[in-house]
Amino acid sequence: MSKGVGLDIGTSMLVTAAFDADDKVVYKMQRDAFYKIVPKSEVNKNSIRRALEIRKFNFIEDTDGFFIVVGEEALETAIERNDVAKRPLYRGVISPKEKNSLPMLKVLISNLIGKGDNTPLVYSVPAKPIDGEFDIIYHTEMMGHYLSGMGYIPQPINESFAIALSELLDDGLTGICLSFGAGMVNCGIIHQGDSLVEFSMTKGGDYIDQAVGNALDISASLVQLEKENGVDLFNPKTKIMEAVSVYYNSVIKYALENISFELEKQKKNLPIFREKVIMIVSGGLTLANGFEDKVSQVLSTINFPIAVSEVRKAASPMTAVAHGCLLASQL
Ligand SMILES: Nc1ncnc2c1ncn2[C@@H]1O[C@H](COP(=O)(O)OP(=O)(O)OP(=O)(O)O)[C@@H](O)[C@H]1O
Ligand SMILES: [Mg+2]
Hints:
Number of helices: 10
Low-confidence stretches: none
Order of helices and strands: EEEEHEEHEEHEHEHEEEHHHEHEH
Strand content: 15-25%
Number of strands: 15
Radius of gyration: 20 Å
Largest sheet: 5 strands, mixed
Shape: globular
Structural class: alpha/beta
Strand order of the largest sheet: 3-2-1-9-10
Bound molecules: adenosine-5'-triphosphate, magnesium ion
């Protein structure tokens, strides 16, 4: 690990990138979720512990005598109990309302990367939202403080800039980078390796899960799992998928219209692009079939302030940010 680590701290997924002994990049992922089980008695407590151990679930016992299941299994447990798993992050930053947020994030991250030995580590942070009133400073500082304590030399970079480092090296590090995640959409305009404009919007995959759940009266966690089993935006086969496609459309439209508006507003900060510019789309939501075509379709209906040459999906949308962070740790 001493060569450096890239860490993508996402609302729904934590992803790490590091080099193995042969200098090959290896990725690890962990769902950013936890679920608390409150035992009813001492006997009950022992039986729950045994059951969790038999299933080899990742869990911790907190000082109040509760069990906290973490990662992928948290989602599984929540669905079994007809409930929803909790998240340490809300809309891309540490959730201030959830007192377990920081301890949970610590457990999840140390499960993935262990302790460092003055190892350079670059972690991703979202940009300030244009449609929300929270700031990212607390989140950035808390994560930096915690990662230092773990033996790393941490440095934050913006999520869309990490995508540029991962995807635009052969394109003169110039392009529009968009990350469609669970909590947010991040946008960055990168020109010759310099990130000139960065902002985010707070409508992503979680919004789709909740909206579809409300419309069909089913659990948002269930919608999330169905969606992750595969989405075809131009050919939805079930009622749930039809609703998922409708709200996908609404997220893409919302993002592009707001980006368009914001870029007009920030025109003076933009360079004059002599050629058309590549748009990179990344993040879990872009795994849906037809995502780039849907983005191109919506782009053709609005007056986007930058001429786009092509909409290209990141080579690996789930790991692009961690990859970019790892490359940044080597600069
Ligand atoms: N195969 C898939 N098809 C469609 N959607 C998917 C798929 N896999 C994951 N998703 C969805 O993508 C979203 C998560 O994307 P990602 O992991 O990029 O987000 P994040 O980085 O954790 O969040 P954020 O960047 O907003 O903080 C979730 O809504 C998830 O359900
Ligand atoms: Mg993300």
